[in-house]
UniProtKB/TrEMBL annotation, chain A:
Full protein name: Putative ABC transport system permease protein
Xref: InterPro entries: ABC3_permease_C (IPR003838), MacB_PCD (IPR025857), Macrolide_Exporter_MacB (IPR050250)
Family: Belongs to the ABC-4 integral membrane protein family.
Compartments in which it is found: Cell membrane
From TrEMBL, chain B:
The protein's name in its UniProt record: Putative ABC transport system ATP-binding protein
Superkingdom of source: Bacteria
Molecular-function GO terms, alphabetical: ATP binding; ATP hydrolysis activity; transmembrane transporter activity
Pfam families for the chain: ABC_tran
Keyword Transport: yes
Protein keywords: ATP-binding, Nucleotide-binding, Transport
Gene Ontology cellular-component terms listed: membrane protein complex; plasma membrane
Gene3D superfamilies assigned: P-loop containing nucleotide triphosphate hydrolases
């Protein structure tokens, strides 16, 4: 049996090519998406368990809502050494670790900085709490000793024993590399590389000599709950105590929720791609079975049982499914590599890189094979039903009768679908509605084909009798016409869906992001300062209009962690997005504050007072004169004080953030110059204010293009489907075609007839897909708006839609080339010869 | 065309000269036509008879421009069809010839009326309405013009085919066993329509048949055997044809 199957696959390879392409495309896309989203999630989520596995109790800054609101990180409070000592000395505490990080970089012997986005870390001496372990050399435990991670060591060719210059917030330092570290299975804990420092160096170089920690972790000997309770009393204001599990969950959630959404969305696409593949596989196999009806009938006549026939087809599906899936997985990895290459060209990188996991490989192979075998089920059943007599019959003509059940099913599905999309109250119902609606189009497709073809009759009749006959023929077997058109329909449907819904959502997201930002660049110093020198350097950059620097300090406001800052508010209002919800910034004077509304509903009213306490415990009662809306920019400043109140509370500190305004249309060079400046200083990062918007645009555009590209592949596969169907139909109609030619239809007109029929099928598929796509995406956008009180304006890309339409007609013409030639290559005498 | 044969071709609607058709090569060669010279005179009903495999269909197809001769020549009127290309042949068939086959005569998606008018539709010309009505009445299809072939009996379908052949008033109609698939009564009806077309309007018809009764409707019968004309008979009757055939077998 298997020999028969293999020889059949080999023999029919041309026909199977379409199937194979479909499987490869589906599995390839699925694999690529899995690989990418794994990487994205890993990089966003971090390897939480590796990093924090042994933490039983964590003392962390109260999470200010600002972070969630705007994505910006205000300068956090730190745990002072005194509090840390108290925590470490609590009964039941076995070990402790303080976390302290700050940006560092190395300076090469040529004076050029390298590893500019590395993170300096206080080396944790408690081995259980330290996520890092030493692979070569020793831990850095004396002043002037550092350890770097394996990745950094490999990239920069650093060897243990090397003397290096480390650029820190406290200036350049001469250090000796004493060890290479690794983080779990991977090289790096921090994406830009990790530089571990001994305790004294860490305080001096990372935190201006202050003995403080960003957060503090404890390891309990007995019950962690007791330690949590005890730690609560020893913890300073603005900090929260969390159990290890809570802490890890928080970490995961903070980093991973976006990734999770992204992964779900990407995987939805991937499964969709597999389904398109499955559909095309189904279609091609149906045509193949029809074409091989005689062969199957002969087999049946010489004694093959229906089961054997069925099994042989299913085995063919299995062989093809495996082959296609293997090729697909390879294609998927290649696609990922290509994506990485493309991103690299634009200066971006794939978050998390590419990980070759066996799970992705296996699931790609498995799903691809299963879907192929499933897709072959129905054609295989048809094959099993082959009667020996069909070997003798001229041609199996399908009945044009469609049956009432089909009509009822289609209408019910359509109604349910519309209902789900219009009235659904959750993602599940709305999604199910969309699926039901699309399913109704498939089920009802033979009706649509019949109606559509009839509607097209007046148009096609202008081409003469051949146009008329083309319509008649597609109406004659509406099921076949529909199946062929459906393959195209689903492709065009998805292209339209992605084009319309994708573009709408992209525009909405960009608009949202634009709402929360407005400064062109935000320059932030972490741990260092933005001194007047640096400001004037910035101002000297070509096309930079203005630079406004702000001083910031971590405080608690009425007991909650927050940031306050001071600077030239009037200037900032001009170049940044300083939105006042209530009150007036002009009222800002000594003893007053403009409070940032963090969106938790606890924002005080204008006229009220708040108590602001700085990290040393000094406090002040300030009158609220304004409430600021959370924007990307106010997320950086936090609440704003008048300079005098700021000075009297915090003292005279240097600015740590600057907002930069550049002349519009001067992006390229200016950007490079600003980034170069920032690169000179390890503590300073320059972020394009609208970077997020641009990133979103890039990601969306890329996704839309990539997905459209893949979907266009399915359109090409549909093209092969049309070729198959047309060829089959010509084979069946050879008498009729012969007769037409005998009584005087020229070959040119016969070919035109075939072409017209093919174009008609293509048009039906294209138009059907486009209308379905438009309906579904508009309804989806509407229901999204309804559920989230967002106001996404559906953007309909007319130009693309017209292009798709034209493409559809062209596909029809293209698909007809081969069958049309075949139609006139036959002898006219076939029409009257007995066979 | 000043050769003496021209005088003869004037009265012939179609003719074959030393027509040979060979299938295959060498040892396996089959001479379907082994040098046939024949005239099909205008306004006459000619029947071609002969045992199975004698080359009847081949002769008809080659003269009608459906197939090409291996050697020799075939004329429709004055036109040497071996000199025509594929498209010219198609147009010649469309404009000057009519066909009736044993089966599969009609386009299934077209109504009876549309099938009858198909050659004219293809040529882009209009039917003479009176003539169309007369033929439809003669073959008795008035009531069924709107039906599809699948809604017609075999006999009715064959009447549509006859009407289709007659309506464009072709120079010559070729019919290959037009009654072969019909019962004798329906067959007789079809044959009398054909006879009337020759008598009343001077139509020229060439018909291949196995049936002596059918042959008796013709003006003349040609007998073919092994690709050659072995006999002919004017004003045949069923009995005479039957006698002649018995002699063959003997
Ligand atoms: N395409 C072909 N290839 C090879 N041989 C052929 C072909 N067509 C016809 N022949 C042979 O040519 C000879 C004449 O065939 P033809 O069809 O003209 O016979 P016929 O007199 O019409 O027979 P019948 O009464 O059975 O229809 C036969 O021997 C036949 O086998
Ligand atoms: Mg014959």
């Amino acid at each position: 049996m298997i020999k028969l199957v293999l020889s059949s696959v080999r023999h029919n390879l041309g026909r199977y090519l379409a199937t194979l392409v479909a499987i490869v495309a589906g599995v390839g896309f699925y694999t690529a998406v899995s690989v990418i989203s794994d990487g994205v999630i890993d990089s966003l989520e971090g390897n939480i368990d590796d990093q924090y596995g042994n933490v039983d109790v964590a003392v962390v800054p109260d999470e200010a809502d600002v972070v969630e609101q705007t994505g910006a990180q205000p300068e956090p409070l730190k745990v002072p050494q005194a509090a840390a000592d108290q925590l470490a000395a609590l009964p039941g505490v076995d070990g402790s670790a303080g976390i302290l990080t700050a940006p560092v970089a190395f300076e090469g012997s040529d004076g050029k900085p390298f590893a500019t986005s590395a993170t300096g870390r206080l080396w944790i001496t408690d081995a259980d709490l330290n996520p890092l372990s030493v692979v070569t050399g020793d831990a850095p435990d004396a002043a002037g000793e550092v350890a770097v991670d394996q990745g950094l060591a490999d990239d920069e060719k650093l060897k243990v024993g090397a003397e290096l210059t480390l650029l820190t917030l406290a200036g350049p330092q001469q250090v000796e590399l004493v060890g290479i570290t690794e983080f779990g299975d991977s090289d790096a804990l921090d994406t830009g590389g990790t530089v571990s420092l001994s305790e004294q160096d860490a305080f001096n170089w990372l935190n201006s000599g202050k003995q403080e920690y960003e957060s503090f972790y404890l390891r309990a000997s007995g019950s962690a709950d007791d330690v949590v309770a005890a730690a609560g009393k020893a913890t300073p204001d603005g900090f929260a105590v969390e159990s290890g599990d809570e802490f890890r969950d928080d970490q995961r959630e903070a980093n991973g929720s976006f990734a999770q959404t992204l992964k779900t969305a990407l995987q939805a696409f991937a499964v969709l791609a597999l389904l398109v593949g499955g559909f095309v596989i189904f279609n091609t196999f149906s045509v193949i079975v029809a074409q091989r009806l005689r062969e199957l009938a002969v087999l049946a006549a010489i004694g093959a049982t229906p089961r054997q026939l069925k099994r042989s087809l299913r085995l063919e599906g299995l062989v093809l499914g495996l082959l296609g899936s293997v090729l697909g997985v390879v294609a998927g990895y290649l696609l990922t590599l290509a994506l990485q290459g493309i991103l690299a060209l634009t200066g971006n990188e794939l978050p998390g890189g590419i990980s070759f996991r066996s799970a992705n490989l296996v699931s790609g192979l498995f799903l691809g094979t299963v879907i192929t075998v499933l897709s072959v089920m129905i054609p295989a059943r048809r094959a099993g039903r082959t009667e020996p007599i069909e070997a003798m019959r001229a041609a199996a003509t399908e009945s044009a009768d469609l049956g009432r059940a089909r009509a009822v099913t289609a209408l019910v599905l359509a109604a349910l679908g519309l209902l789900g999309m219009l009235a659904g109250s959750g993602l599940a119902t709305i999604g199910a509605g969309a699926v039901a609606f699309v399913a109704s189009v498939f089920v009802g497709a033979p009706y649509l084909a019949r109606v559509g073809a009839r509607a097209a009759r007046p148009l096609l009749e202008r081409f003469g009798i051949e146009g008329r006959l083309a319509v008649d023929n597609s109406v004659r077997s509406p099921k076949r016409t529909a199946t062929t058109a459906n393959a195209l329909l689903i492709g065009v449907f998805l292209v339209t869906l992605v084009a319309v819904a994708g573009a709408s959502i992209r525009d909405f997201a960009i608009q949202q992001v634009n709402d929360v930002q407005s400064a062109d660049y935000v320059v932030v110093s972490q741990g260092g300062t933005i001194d007047p020198d640096f400001v004037s350097q910035l101002k000297d950059v070509k096309d930079v209009n203005d630079v406004v620097a702000f001083e910031r300090a971590p405080v608690t406001i009425d007991g909650a962690a927050a940031t306050v800052s001071a600077g030239d508010v009037a200037e900032m209002a001009k170049i940044a997005n300083l939105e006042v919800d209530k009150g007036d910034l002009a009222d800002l004077a000594d003893g007053t504050i403009a409070v940032l509304d963090t969106g938790d509903g606890k924002a005080p009213n204008v006229g009220g007072t708040v108590t602001v306490t700085d990290s040393r415990g000094k406090d002040a009662e300030l009158k609220v004169v304004a409430v600021l809306a959370p924007t990307q920019d106010t997320g950086q400043t936090g609440s704003i004080l008048d300079q005098a109140s700021f000075d009297s509370l915090v003292g005279d500190v240097a600015p740590t953030i600057a907002f930069v305004d550049v002349a519009s249309g001067a992006q390229g060079e200016t950007k490079d110059a600003i980034e170069d400046l920032a690169d000179q200083r390890p503590d300073i990062t320059a972020q394009e204010g609208n970077a997020l918007g641009q990133l979103i645009r890039t990601v969306f555009d890329f996704l839309i293009k990539a997905v459209t590209g893949l979907l266009l592949m399915s359109v090409l596969i549909a093209l092969i489907g049309i070729v198959n169907t047309m060829s089959l139909s010509i084979l069946e109609r050879r008498r009729e075609l012969g007769l037409l030619r005998i009584i005087g239809m020229t070959d040119k007109r016969v070919r035109r007839m075939v072409t017209l029929e093919s174009v008609l099928i293509a048009l039906l598929g294209t138009l059907g897909g486009m209308v379905t796509g438009l309906v579904v995406s508009l309804l989806l956008v509407l229901s999204f708006n309804r559920l989230s009180d967002a106001t996404i304006t559906p953007s309909i890309p007319w130009v693309e839609l017209v292009a798709i339409m034209v493409l559809g007609v062209l596909l029809g013409v293209l698909a007809a080339l081969l069958p049309a030639r075949r139609s006139t290559r036959m002898e006219v005498l076939d029409a009257i010869s007995a066979g | 065309m000043t050769s003496p044969t021209e005088v003869r071709t004037r009265s012939a609607a179609a003719r074959a000269i030393e027509a040979r058709k060979t299938y295959g090569e060498g040892e396996a060669a089959v001479h379907a036509l082994a040098g046939v010279t024949v005239d099909f005179p205008e306004h006459e009903f000619t029947a071609i008879m002969g045992p199975s495999g004698s080359g009847k269909s081949t002769l008809m197809q080659c003269v009608a421009g459906l197939d090409r001769l291996t050697s020799g020549a075939a004329f429709i009127g004055d036109t040497d069809i071996s000199k025509l290309n594929k498209t010219e042949l198609t147009l010649l068939r469309r404009d000057r010839l009519g066909f009736i086959f044993q089966q599969y005569n009609l386009i299934p998606s077209l109504t009876a009326r549309e099938n009858i008018l198909l050659p004219l539709t293809l040529a882009g010309t209009k039917a003479d309405q009176a003539w169309f009505d007369e033929i439809v009445r003669t073959v008795g299809l008035q009531e069924r013009l709107g039906n599809l072939p699948s809604q017609l009996s075999g006999g009715q379908q064959q009447r549509v085919a006859v009407a289709r052949a007659l309506v464009p008033k072709p120079d010559i109609i070729f019919a290959d066993e037009p009654t072969g698939a019909l019962d004798s009564r329906t067959g007789t009806e079809i044959l009398s329509f054909m006879r009337r077309a020759v008598d009343d309007t001077g139509q020229t018809i060439v018909m291949v048949t196995h049936d002596p009764h059918a042959a008796s409707y013709a003006n003349r019968v040609l007998f073919l055997a092994d690709g050659q004309i072995v006999d002919e008979m004017d004003n045949p009757t069923s009995d005479r044809v039957l006698d002649r055939m018995k002699r063959f077998e003997g």
